[in-house]
Design brief:
Blueprint: H1 11-28, H2 30-46, H3 52-68, H4 82-94, H5 96-99, H6 108-144, E1 149-154, E2 157-163, H7 164-189, E3 191-192, H8 208-214, E4 219-220, H9 224-229, H10 232-258, E5 266-267, H11 286-309, H12 325-347, E6 350-351, H13 353-359, H14 367-378, H15 382-398, H16 408-419, H17 427-433, H18 436-441, H19 451-494
Parallel strand pairs: 3-4
Antiparallel strand pairs: 1-2, 5-6
Helix pairs in contact: 2-3, 2-8, 2-19, 3-4, 6-7, 6-12, 6-19, 7-10, 7-19, 10-11, 10-12, 11-12, 14-15, 15-16
Length: about 500
C-alpha cells in the first residue's frame, strides 16, 4: 500500500530539494529579488495598475525586509521558496489587500529567470575583471622577456629558438578572444524576461522597458515564450568559460614542464611551493597542480550546464532553474579562484634566462636557418638545402657531436653525399646561421619572434586591453546608473 504524506512537503523532498535550494537562493537571489520587486512595484504604479498608496506600502515593506536582513527571512517548512517567504513577509507587514498585489502581471517563471540573469551578472563581471588583471600581469611579464631566448616546441620536441615574450604573446592572444566570448555571454545574459509572466505575457498594461531599464538590463527579450524557455544565456557563459579552461589548461601543462628540474626554465616563488614530508630536496610546484585541478573543475561545471540544458522541453522547467545553480554559479566562482591565483603566480615568477639561452640550441633547433642560409648564400633549392642539413644532423647524432661542432668540412662532406657537390659557405656564415640569437633577430616578419616584431604584437594587445577595460567600465557605469534611477523612482513614489 502506498505511503502517502498528508501535507506538502514530504520530509525527504524538503531535505534534499527545498532546503538546499533555499540556501542557494539566499546567496544568489536575495538582493536581486529585492531590486526586482522594487522595480516591479514602481512600474505597476507608473502604469496605473496599482494605486500610489499600494505602491508605497509595497516599497515600505520591501525596505523593512531589507533593513531586517536576510537572517529574519529564513526557511520555514511548508513555504516553498524564497519568493513565497518574501511575499508572505510583505503580506504580514501591510496586509493582503496591498501585499498580495506585488505579483500582478508577473509569474515566478519570468521573475525566476530574471533573477538568475541578475545573479549571474556580478559574477560574470568579476570574471571579466579578473581576466583583465591577469592579462595585464602577463603583458608586463612578456615585455620583460622580449630577449629571453628559449626553445620553442612542436609535437613536444625542441623545434626552433623562440623567446618567452613570443610564447606569452600567443597566450595573451587567446585570452583576448576568451575576453570577447565572455563579453558576448554578458550581453546575451543581460536581457530582461520580465513581463512574460507565466508564458504568454499579461493582460495588464505594463511597461516591460521601464522594468528592464531600472534593473540595468540592456533590452527586453521580445518573445514572451523565449523569455521563460531559453537557456542560451547559461550555455553561453558555460561555453566561454570552457574555452578559457581549455586554453589555460594548455598553458598550465607547459608551466608544469618548465618547472621540472629537467627543464629548469622557471622557478615558482617559494610562497607557492610545498616541500616533501620525507625528501628534503623537493620543491613541489603544487600551485600549478591546484590550478590544473580547478581548471578541470570549471570545465566539468560548464559541461554540466550544457548537458543539463540538453534535451529538455523548450519551456519553463526546473532543469534550468534551481537545479542548475551549483553548475553555472560554481563555474563562475571557480574562474575567480583560477584567474586571481594565476595572476599572483605570474607576478612572482622567476625565469632562468641564461639556462634557457643555453637550451635554445639543443636539439639542433637552429638548423632551419642553416637551410634557409644555403638557399640564400649557396643558391640551392630549399628541398636540397633541407636534405643537406638533415644529413648534417644525422652525422652529428651518429658521431655524438653538438651543433657548435658543425663546420664547413662536415657541410661539404654531407653535401657531396646528398646532392653530389660541395658548397661555397664561409665558417663565419655557417656559425651565424646556427646562432640562436641571430635566428631570433632575423625573424622580423609581422608576428615573428624578433624582439621588435613581438613588441609590436604586445603593443596591439595592450591597445585591446585598454579597449576592453573601457567596455568593462561601461558595463559597471550602466549598472550604477540603473541603480540610481531605481532609487530615484522609489523615492519619488514614497514622497
Amino acid at each position: 500500500m502506498a505511503d502517502t504524506s498528508k501535507s506538502f512537503p514530504h520530509p525527504l523532498y524538503e531535505k534534499t530539494v527545498l532546503q538546499p535550494f533555499f540556501k542557494d537562493a539566499e546567496i544568489y537571489y536575495y538582493e536581486p529579488m529585492l531590486s526586482a520587486n522594487k522595480a516591479h512595484a514602481v512600474m505597476l504604479h507608473t502604469c496605473d495598475v496599482i494605486t500610489k498608496g499600494n505602491a508605497q506600502g509595497l516599497l515600505k515593506a520591501l525596505s523593512q525586509i531589507e533593513a531586517d536582513g536576510l537572517e529574519k527571512l529564513g526557511y520555514e517548512s511548508g513555504v516553498e521558496d524564497l519568493f513565497f517567504a518574501m511575499e508572505n513577509k510583505i503580506i504580514k507587514t501591510i496586509g493582503a489587500a496591498h501585499g498580495g498585489n506585488l505579483q500582478l502581471a508577473r509569474s515566478r517563471n519570468d521573475l525566476g529567470y530574471a533573477l538568475t540573469r541578475l545573479a549571474i551578472r556580478p559574477l560574470l563581471l568579476q570574471s571579466l575583471d579578473n581576466l583583465l588583471v591577469f592579462r595585464e600581469a602577463l603583458l608586463l611579464f612578456a615585455r620583460e622577456h622580449l630577449e629571453t631566448i628559449m626553445p620553442g616546441y612542436t609535437h613536444t620536441q625542441p623545434a626552433q629558438p623562440s623567446t618567452m615574450a613570443h610564447y606569452i604573446a600567443g597566450v595573451l592572444s587567446f585570452l583576448e578572444r576568451d575576453m570577447q566570448r565572455l563579453f558576448f555571454a554578458y550581453d546575451v545574459n543581460n536581457q530582461s524576461p520580465l513581463g512574460a509572466a507565466a508564458l504568454t505575457g499579461t493582460g495588464f498594461p505594463i511597461d516591460r522597458e521601464l522594468v528592464a531599464d531600472l534593473l540595468g538590463f540592456d533590452k527586453v527579450m521580445a518573445s514572451s515564450y523565449d523569455s521563460i524557455g531559453s537557456s542560451d544565456n547559461l550555455t553561453d557563459v558555460a561555453n566561454a568559460l570552457n574555452s578559457l579552461a581549455v586554453n589555460l589548461s594548455r598553458f598550465t601543462r607547459d608551466m608544469l614542464f618548465w618547472a621540472t628540474q629537467e627543464s629548469g626554465a622557471i622557478r615558482i616563488d617559494d610562497s607557492f611551493i610545498q616541500i616533501s614530508s620525507i625528501m628534503p630536496q623537493k620543491r613541489n610546484p603544487v600551485v600549478l597542480e591546484h590550478m590544473r585541478a580547478r581548471i578541470s573543475r570549471m570545465m566539468a561545471y560548464g559541461q554540466g550546464v550544457n548537458l543539463q540544458c540538453h534535451n529538455i522541453p523548450f519551456g519553463d522547467t526546473q532543469d534550468i532553474e534551481d537545479e542548475i545553480f551549483p553548475l553555472v554559479f560554481g563555474s563562475l566562482e571557480t574562474s575567480h579562484d583560477i584567474l586571481t591565483l594565476y595572476t599572483a603566480v605570474i607576478e612572482t615568477l622567476q625565469v632562468n634566462v641564461e639556462h634557457l639561452r643555453e637550451c635554445a640550441i639543443s636539439g639542433f633547433t637552429t638548423v632551419t636557418e642553416l637551410a634557409d642560409t644555403l638557399v640564400r648564400e649557396a643558391d640551392l633549392p630549399f628541398r636540397q638545402a633541407h636534405s643537406v642539413v638533415s644529413g648534417m644532423v644525422n652525422y652529428a647524432l651518429e658521431n655524438n657531436l653538438s651543433p657548435t661542432d658543425f663546420n664547413t668540412d662536415i657541410l661539404n662532406q654531407v653535401a657531396k653525399e646528398r646532392i653530389g657537390q660541395a658548397l661555397e659557405l664561409s665558417e663565419e656564415t655557417l656559425k651565424q646561421a646556427l646562432d640562436p640569437v641571430a635566428f631570433v633577430a632575423i625573424r622580423t616578419v609581422q608576428g615573428g619572434v624578433a624582439p621588435l616584431a613581438t613588441a609590436n604584437v604586445l603593443d596591439g594587445i595592450a591597445k585591446q586591453i585598454e579597449q576592453d577595460k573601457q567596455q568593462f567600465a561601461g558595463y559597471n557605469q550602466h549598472l550604477q546608473d540603473a541603480d540610481a534611477r531605481l532609487n530615484a523612482k522609489v523615492e519619488q513614489v514614497l514622497a
